[in-house]
Amino acid sequence: MTAHPPASAPRIVLQTERLLIRHMTPDDAAFMLELLNGDAWLRFIGDRNVRTLVDARHYILDGPVEMVDRLGFGFYIVALKENGCPIGVCGLARRDFLDDVDIGYGFASAYWGKGYAHEAASAVLAYAVEELGVKRIVATVRAGNAPSIALLNKLGLRFERPIAHPDGTRDLQLFSIAFA
Fold first, then answer.
1. Could you tell me the end-to-end alpha-carbon distance of the chain, in angstroms, rounded to an integer?
2. Phi/psi of residue 87, nearest 5 degrees
3. How far apart are CA 19 and CA 117, in angstroms?
4. CA distance 158 to 175
5. pLDDT tens, position by position, 27-41
6. Which pTM value belongs to this model?
7. Using CA atoms, how far apart are residues 88 and 111, in angstroms rounded to an integer?
8. Out of 3.40.50.10230, 3.90.79.10, 3.40.630.30, 1.10.357.20, which CATH number does the structure's domain 12-134 have?
9. Where are the domains of the chain?
10. pLDDT by residue (tens digit) across 109-130?
């Protein structure tokens, strides 16, 4: 019989060789506050107007937690398997301005260049196809985000077309991959 974590522990969605991909909880507020206000997040993903721990808790509950409750998938915390330390986020979303499920990710800069984003995103893609039955996945990225574009290509997503973000503040590139 498998031992189950305490009810208060975040539920693990996926595991890889080095990572745990788990549900986000309000206890992740301090990590999310730092991640959402990092230079790269603000430059390439956008300002979410999260300035306090209270804002971060609301962001988590009204965003990732609500999406998982509503759709059965969303954005998850990516943590190191060895110690549980959160290092980023990765997951799936349904955005009003896209016709397909969208994969996204963001990692703390201290963990860039170590293959964690590829490891997490590969696991999330496999989960989307094998467990959720998703047939096509898209991703959006700003043109200047070369590392993210390289990762999307490594994952098998290909540039489809430029699109404008509906808020009118930025142009994006749409990447996609289809599964049989």
1. 36
2. -125, -10
3. 10
4. 5
5. 999 999 999 999 888
6. 0.91
7. 8
8. 3.40.630.30
9. 12-134
10. 999 999 999 999 999 999 999 9
C-alpha span between 114 and 86 (Å, rounded): 15
Strand partners, 138: 102, 176
| Sign of the Cα pseudo-torsion (113, 130, 68, 143, in order) | positive
Q: How many CB atoms lie within 10 A of CB 40?
A: 16
Cβ neighbours of residue 137 closer than 8 Å, sequence gap 6 or more = 92, 100, 101, 102, 103, 125, 128, 129, 157, 176, 177, 179
Q: Strand 171-178: give its sheet, edge to edge.
A: 12-15, 19-22, 75-80, 86-94, 101-107, 136-141, 171-178, 158-164
pLDDT digits (tens, 9 = 90+) for 79-102: 999 999 999 999 999 998 899 999
Residue pair 80/87 in contact by the 8 Å Cβ criterion: yes
- Residue 59 burial by Cβ neighbours in a 10 Å radius (0-12, 13-18, 19+): buried
Strand 158-164 versus strand 19-22 pairing type: unpaired
